[in-house]
């Protein structure tokens, strides 16, 4: 049994969790959304300051909620990449300091590996190989999960991430920040077939289209043009119909690519992770398609779709159990490919 205290501060949530193997002992998420809402998006400098103000209290709360002392913690982890550099530094410095003071192993965790591991929190018996559909604010990828730390990216977006598309379309529909949940809610009242929008196909030089890659920037522009046209033609833009049509297009696009990828690679399970995994349209669409193709699709509980530290702790437990620890000289990186995860660790035999 391995118990890890994990910190996640890559963007706008100050999160601390304690995880024992694949079981969550405590999970604290101090959201900064109300602070950033007034700016219409995350302000990196403001995020770092907020993390600094909140982190110590969140650590104390995590220990208290888990009813554990430092002696019962086997390792201390923090997200070190990718993300906002100033924000990551707060969590990483806190984790390194705690590791030094309490003489515990330290682990730097890749944020996207955390999103993959979120599925294990509700499906502890899940084991690789499986396909991960990672859909967050910064990333949209189809990843072949081969083992702890061994990932192959099979497909991705060529431009905007799915969550970024939700946020940008919400902004142009004046729905506020964060856009994903706002569109999801409004889409329930709209007609998903009201407007036909491009699903983001990527052309191949040899002709035809890429089976796994998508492009969401064209879809966002198509929504902008549609709204401009509707503003000219009608007295009131049917915002719910636009939101529903957009959401349905993204859901169909992601579903089609994920199913094709799983079938081509002979993977029977698709585990979805990242903030957009919370989307009701994607959940419905993918689940229905998976049943048709005899595939298993797994979604983390809503609270573990968006950023949290439990998923970081879950990944850290697996690394620590495999003898992987990080150097205290490890720094933060705003970008780091998932294929580079093992560069964060030194292996102790
Ligand atoms: O994984 P996450 O919390 O942070 C990143 O690592 O980026 O994802 C945040 C993204 C945002 O773009 C947000 O709008 C989107 O996830 N999101 C959603 C929903 N909830 C969050 N998108 C669609 N539908 C949702 N229900
Ligand atoms: Zn994330």
Please characterize this protein's 3D structure.
This protein is α/β, with parallel strands linked by helices. It folds into two domains: 3-119 and 305-347, 2-Layer Sandwich (Nucleotidyltransferase, domain 5), CATH 3.30.420; 128-299, ATPase, nucleotide binding domain (Nucleotidyltransferase, domain 5, 2-Layer Sandwich). Helix content is 42%, strand content 19%. The chain has helices at 33-37, 44-66, 85-101, 111-122, 162-172, 179-187, 217-233, 239-264, 280-292, 310-321, and strands spanning 3-8, 13-20, 23-31, 75-81, 106-110, 130-135, 140-147, 150-156, 269-273, 296-298, 324-325, 346-347. It has a five-stranded mixed sheet with strand order 3-2-1-4-5, sandwiched between helices. α8 (239-264) packs parallel to α9 (280-292). The chain is globular, with a radius of gyration of 20 Å. The mean pLDDT is 96. Bound molecules: 5'-O-[(R)-(carboxyoxy)(hydroxy)phosphoryl]adenosine (KG4) and zinc ion. 5'-O-[(R)-(carboxyoxy)(hydroxy)phosphoryl]adenosine (KG4) is lined by residues 11, 136-138, 163, 166-167, 178-181, 184, 274-276, 278-279, 306-307.
